[in-house]
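Narrative of activities, Objective 1.

The group set out to show that a structural description can be obtained from nothing but a protein's sequence at a throughput compatible with the screening campaign. Below is one input-output pair from the validation batch, recorded exactly as produced.
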Amino acid sequence: MTKLKDEARPMTEEADFLQIKSVDHVHFYVGNAKHAMYYWWKAYGFKPVAYSGLETGNREFASYVLESGQARLVLSAAYSPSSPIAAHHMVHGDGVKAIALEVDDVEKAWKETTARGGKSAWAPREEKDANGIFRTSAIYTYGETLHVFVDRDDYKGTFAPTYKALKYEAQSTGLAAIDHIVGNVQLGKMNHWVNFYHQVMGFRQLMHFDDQDISTEYSALMSKVMQNGNGRVKFPINEPAEGRKKSQIEEYLDYYLSPGAQHLAIITGDILETVQQLRANGVEFLRVPNSYYEALPERIGKIKEDYKTIQELGILVDKDDEGYLLQIFTRPLQDRPTMFIEVIQRHGSQSFGKGNFKALFEALEIEQDKRGNL
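Output recorded for this entry:
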């Protein structure tokens, strides 16, 4: 197996050998799948579309599939305390176990990535039922997280074998697709995982933010954004930087107990409407200091949205040479201060809100201080 090196290396031109079509789904391991399903259904407007469990012949775990636009989540909980799902939940709480990527050929994806230094989680395999053949393979990435390669071309069922369709109605909040997924890793490990995505998966570095870009009086972090060939899959990688107090990345690592997915960014076509609905459904968001909004019109200029409404809802705005974006961040999804959700709307801009980093970090530090973790 090829050994990865941790030092930063130049992003050489390479073919997009994985040919990833999209993020197929994000698979959470949770303590109670039924409760988690209800939360995503009623709070975030995701529609439950499939179920696997005892009633469908699955004796290992209960699992729900939910969709909102093109975004698909899978929520699974173990029946037995000896299950790997139960062990994962015991250590991490509710968290992302797998980020699944749709490809044309799972065997080729597995062979290419493992030959380049990826650690195999499982070799190419087929699951069959009356609806056809569902093919997957998988490799490990940071922490206990997996990348699962999925091929659905010969499967016509609802999601996968043992899953049956559900007939639920959901009130959409406008969440349309996964924009990016952020991973938190230990101090000194960011370049290792940047090199992993470049060498093993053929990704390129899109952006780099250092501790001068993302810092406050007390703490800082560094981040590099990796992107696949067609630009549909973006994985920022964060690591803590030296600071006077504990950063949000260190707090996450303390409570998740390993590297892992910090947040999902989900795109919407109307962030004002989406956030209003999410708030009405009980979703809690971080709030930046009101001073942030005093200079916002002058910094950003003319936009389609109303600045007063943006301030009322606590939405952040940033711009670059291509346009502007609006974004907002929820409080953690569970009692442990680990994973959260970003809601984002893009008007041309393909950046990540660099102009908002300081205000966002300050808002996060206010929350950390309330928890006694700053």
